[in-house]
Structures are given as C-alpha cells and as structure tokens.
Amino acid sequence: MFLNKKIGGKLLSAMLTVAMVSSVAVTSAVSSVAVTNDTQNAEATADKVTSSANSYGLKDNPQDGVILHAWQWSFQNIKSKLPEIAAAGYSTIQTSVTQQPKESTAGKGNNIWWVYYQPAGFYLTTGGNALGTKSDLQELCAAASQYGIRVIVDVVANHLGNKNGYDKADTIPDDIKNDGNCWHDQWNKEINYGNRYSITHGSMGGLPDLNSENPKIQNYVVNYLKECIDVGVTGFRFDAAKHISVPDEGSEYTFWPNVLNPTTAYAQSKGFTPYYYGEALYQTTDGGGPAATSYTKFMSLTDDTTGNSIRGAVAGGNAAGAAKSTYDKGISPDKAVLWAESHDTYSNDSKDSTNVSDYNINKTWAMVASRNKATALYFARTQGWCGGQIGQIYSTQCFNKEVAEVNKFHNYFAGQSEYLSSSGSIAYNERGTSGVILVNVGGSSQQVSVAAHKMANGTYKDQVSGSTFTVSNGQISGQIGNTGIAVVYNATEIPTNPPTNPPTNPPTQPPTQAETYVKGDANGDGVVNMKDCVVIQKSIVGSTTLTGKNLKAADVTGDSKVAVADVVAVMRYLVGFTNTYSIGSVVTGGVVVNPTTPVNPTNPPTNPPTNPPITSGTVQFDGSAVTVGNERWALYVWKSESDNKWIDMSGSGSSITGNIPDGYTNFIIVRMNGATSDNNWNNKWNQSPDLSTSAGTVVKATGWGSNGLFNVSQSK
C-alpha cells in the first residue's frame, strides 16, 4: 500500500510496452486456454499453511481437506451441526441434490432418495422438499462460511425425471420438455456399458437423457450453477459425469468447457474459485471411452474402485490390501476423490457396503483419509438401508473421536509425503517424518511394533486413545486402542477441546502456522521490482512453478489466480500509479497488517507530484449482509507503516458510519469482537478488503468472502 501519486501517461505507457514485449507468450498462452481449471489453486493449497482464518485448522480448498456428505440431511439440520462439523475437521459439506425434484418429498421416507436424482429442471427447490427451501440453503451457506466451511451441492445435469418408463415427467418446464433438440435419441433406451455412445446417449434406468451438447441445455445448467453461487454455494459435484462426453471425444462435445468456464468466471467475480468434482463409477474407459485424465482437465474425479477395494480389504482382514497406495483410475492424487463408502454403495440395490459395520467403515476411512493430496468423502448413513425420514440425522459416526482425529491429521499433514505399508494385521501410513496412522484390520486393541520408514525418532501421542508411541531403532511401537485406529503425532496446533455449542460469531483465533511475505514479491527477496514481473510471467506460461507464500505474493489482484493482470498491477505500482491493490504491504497469515509504503521501487517517477490531493470524509457503511448482532465496527486508516489510526464506528446493520481524518485516504472496515472494547488486530473477527476514498466512501457489504474477508461494493 502507498500514497496515491499522479504520473504522466508516457512513463506508464513505456513501462507497459516493456511488459508487453516480454509477455507476448504470456498473452498467447492465456488466450489459448479454453477452460479455467484449478491447477493453480491445487498448487496454492499444496503448502501446509492453513488458509482458513479459523481455529479449527480447516483447509480452504476442498481438495486439500475432507468432505462430509450430509446425505439426506435437511439444510437446517446441517446448520445445527456446524459446530460439530468444524470441530471434527471437515473443511467441506456436500448436500444432497438441491434442484427441484420431479415430485414432492415432504414427509417422505429415505426409501425414495432416488427422487432427488430425477429433478424437474435446473432451478433451486421452490417447495415440497423435505431438505428445505432456497432460503434455508442460503442461511446454511452464510453460517458455514463463518466457520471456514465450504458448501458444495450435488448436481444432476445428465438427465431429468421420468413419468412412466422413458416418458418425461410432467413437472419438466415445457421449454425443455417439448423441444426435441434438448434430448438424446429416445430409441437408444437402456445403456450398453460395452458401447461408449450408448453410455453418453442412452437412458439410465428409464430416465430421459438430455442432449448435453445443446446450447440451450448448457445455458440452463450455467444459470442454475450461478443461482447456487448467489446463495453462497462454492462447489459442485456432478452426478453421472462419465455419461457426459468430453472434448477429447470430438469437437461437438462442448458441455464441460461451455458450462464450467462461465461458472468459474462468475464465481471469481465474487471473489472465489469454485471446486468441481465428477462422479465416475468404475472406469471412464468402459465401452471405449476416454482416459480419466480427459475429465480431470476440468475437475477432480471419484476414484471409487480404489476406496471400495480398501474397504473390502479392511473387512476381509487383509492389511496389505488396506495399505494400497495406487489409484485405479490412473489420475494424480490431487485430482482424486476417495471414500470408504458412498450413497451408491450403501443405498443402491446392490448394497455393496450396507452390511459393513461402522467399525470397519471407520477403519477404511482412516486409510483413505490419511492420503496426501487426495480428498476423501465421509458418507453419513441413514437409518439402516434407506430407513428413516428424509431430512433427519440418524448416524453420527462422522463425529466419532477416531474419525475426527483422522480428519485433523489429514489437514495437519497437507502437502507432506506419504509412505504406506503393512505388517501382519496392521496397515499404516506415515506422513512426513512426524506422523503415522495405524489400523488393525484384525481386531481392536493391540500392542504393535512395525518398521519406521520415514518417522523420526521420538515420543508421540495417539490422538485417539491418548497413549504414547515411540519411534526408536527403526521401529514404531505402542498400543492401538479399542477402535483399532491410532492417529499418532504431536498435534500442538489442533484444539483438544473444541466448543460444543455453536458460536454466535466466527471463530476469533488467528490463523495457525502464519507466514509473512510482501504482496507482489513473487521471488521472495523482500523487494518488489521488475524481477517479480518476470517471475510472474514465467509462472503464467508454465516455465516456473510458484508455490506457498511466493504464489500468494504473486496474486496481487486477489482473484485466486496468477495472470497478466497481476503483472500489470505490479508495473503500475513500480511507477507510482494509483491502484487499489495492497502491493508492497506486509501480509501475515493471509491478513494485511500494518501496511507499508512501496518497497524500493526500481523505477520511481522522475517528477513525482508534490503535495498530492488528499481527501477526507465520512464512511457510510451498510453491513447488514454480514451483521450477526453482537459485533462492533471500526475503521483502520493509514498512510504508512508508522502512520495509522483506529477509529470507532457508530450505528448498526444498514446504517454504520465512521469519520476518516484529514490526510488519510486508505481504510479498512473491520468487524470486531463485540465482547471487547480495544481496536486491534487480535480483536478482529472479519474485515473488508483494502479500500480507498478515491473509489468513494459509500460502502455496502455484499456477503462473506474467504481468508477472513467479507465482500463489499463501493461508490461515491
């Protein structure tokens, strides 16, 4: 951050000309990318630093954390469990399908769960839904964001509901139902899994198959995903993704780029990048289909057979099989979604996992959720096979001590190496050099002594039972407790006594494992100069990979990606041109603190203006979108690192005001812990981005963002 300076257009033009000459390849590479993917996000979240500003150690990117599948739970019931969900280490919640079902589910039992996979169209539920209303979903998303938890929804885009046989449901909108171009050939009835065309064009169990290549259908899906984003949803699971073709199969197969590109752009305009994963049961190559990597260009993908085989090995007492380290679909771990079981294995007629005990499911979870880079989905069971009422919660195994400790272990060791092995009845996974999860597939409590391949010598704690394990002379030794699972590491930064009652406001503790870096300093030398521009450009074209704090420093525009806009912003900073980005500021743990003046610009203005105009005024703030009721508000204003002030704001809700003193133009609106009276960063709950009076002093909160920020609009 810096004092605003005026500068002639010629100097800026010269600087940008230099940038353009060196970035022709950059622009070309960017313009040739047809699909926005999450490669950069995966790199950003590969480092160990927790990006969610909360006390639970959750991960900001779902791929880096673990997912709770709140199967058939109502939105209100999910909301009531948020404290337990956060305390159990789930970074993401997946809901059941939120599209309007073809028929009412109000008061119905879970035995008709399949109705949710027969939607009437592409719009959020409007009534008659046992899961709740659109406003219920919006309330859930708003509450979840206060814990640093993302909400992803299940999307059915391959087909809609039927009436009888292959007839279309009466509740499908006429614009789709009566347009033959919206449907694949109806003569191609049931799917032949030995034929790829049948897989992507045939009817699944009598359900009319949508023509996913039709622009009308694609637009309907895009608008639905945007509707979800507008209520706070931040990710999507695509049902039957294998049944929708990919561009590698032909230029006419445009569904994935035409749907995901505009959806991603829309989400990024609201300050985040959505997470996508697709359901692909068995192999994508069935019937001559493409490799799974043709799908992972666009999204992560379920690796169901890997999780299913580990579950079988655990139930069968096969430790070597339970310690399986390969991925059946041949995809990279950072694109894999694993599970111990799913709604398909538990609730389908095949009942693949229905009769597997909770005890063995949790052991399987310990193995799949211990993996590096792969995310894992924990399925919350209904009352027996499809029993109980839709919307109710029946199984709370997802909150068991051993499950929660596995989740925290997963989050704690994000990005650290793994080493899977087995010995006798013990399957285990060593992470980094200071952690291991051990599972006794042959029973429960057992004294063990197994080979240490990576663990450093020392004394460690089993976070499940509290017993002590030692590593010495190449052996890991200790007592596994009665769950059959030991989660062994010294978790000094994980809360041992999470709250049992939902907090009325977001957690107040600062991020753990905080890093400090200078915004714009992409090469990490402490100075923002032309060298950083070159590094950012190389990152864009793929000749350099940025990770960790260097990647965060390079994302000066704060849009969760590194692009040409970041290069231009740094150029403008170096010549002292006015912009609103916090380039040159010191950042700690993802939150800007005590902003600084520019760090040694290499090309300062040759004739900097003297006494640039400085304005002051009253900030008028509408905070109703992020008001809970017992917070207080403050302004943080600054000129430089040594010249800054805190100012109390008055009012509440939609009418909050604060006065900016003469001489200050930069400010942040800060939501403070209402139980405190001192204005400081330790008492902060959330904050706006960096603001400037040049953009106006009428500010309105538009919703929750990420990394401890709320989003705002600004006008004069």
Structure summary:
The chain is α/β, with parallel strands linked by helices. The chain folds into 3 domains: 9-37 and 514-586, Dockerin domain (Type 1 dockerin domain, Orthogonal Bundle), CATH 1.10.1330.10; 60-412, TIM Barrel; 617-715, Immunoglobulin-like, CATH 2.60.40.
Task: Characterise this structure.
By secondary structure, this protein is an alpha/beta fold. It folds into three domains: 9-37 and 514-586, Dockerin domain (Type 1 dockerin domain); 60-412, Glycosidases (TIM Barrel); 617-715, Immunoglobulin-like. The chain is built from 19 helices and 31 strands. The protein has an eight-stranded parallel β-barrel, surrounded by five helices. Strands 25-26-22-30-31 form a five-stranded mixed beta sheet, with no helix packed on it. Strands 23, 24, 27, 28 and 29 form a five-stranded antiparallel beta sheet that branches. β6 (235-239), α10 and β7 form a beta-alpha-beta unit. α17 (530-541) runs antiparallel to α19. The chain starts with 8 loop residues before the first helix and ends with a strand. Mean pLDDT is 84; it is low at 1-54, 493-514 and 590-615.
